[in-house]
Amino acid sequence: MPPLKNLLTAHLEEVDESYLEHLTQATKLSSIMLTAGTLCLVHAVFPFVFTRRGGDMALEFAEKLKKRREKIKKPLEPKKKR
């Protein structure tokens, strides 16, 4: 197992962000996902509410994530299946 410092810094170097920048961006993106998921869950129980908002937020999340990945110097490698 690599040293703890390498685990903490490797991804930050990969995305060219400080810890605080990464924390801010990851928190914003996770907030979008949590809100979209909650709206979709409410919609599942009450189909007449949030008929589009949860899906729209999921698409918004995907677009933001795509833009962030395009910014990265080298493409992220997908994890290999075990």
Task: Describe the structure in brief.
The protein is mainly α and 82 residues long. It contains three helices and no strands.
Can you walk through the features of this model?
- There is one protein chain.
- The protein has 82 residues and is mainly α.
- The protein has one domain.
- It is built from three helices and no strands.
- α2 runs antiparallel to α3 (53-71).
- It starts with a helix and ends in an 11-residue tail after the last helix.
- The model has no long low-confidence stretch (mean pLDDT 83).
Task: Let me know the number of strands.
Answer: 0
- Secondary-structure-based class equals mainly alpha
Rg over C-alpha atoms, rounded to the nearest angstrom: 16 Å
Large-scale geometry: elongated
Q: What percent of the residues sit in helical stretches (DSSP H or I)?
A: over 70%
Number of domains: 1
- Distance between the first and last residues' Cα: 18 Å
Mean pLDDT: 83
Low-confidence stretches: none
DSSP strand (E) fraction? under 5%
For the biggest sheet, the summary is: none
Element-level helix/strand string: HHH
Number of helices: 3
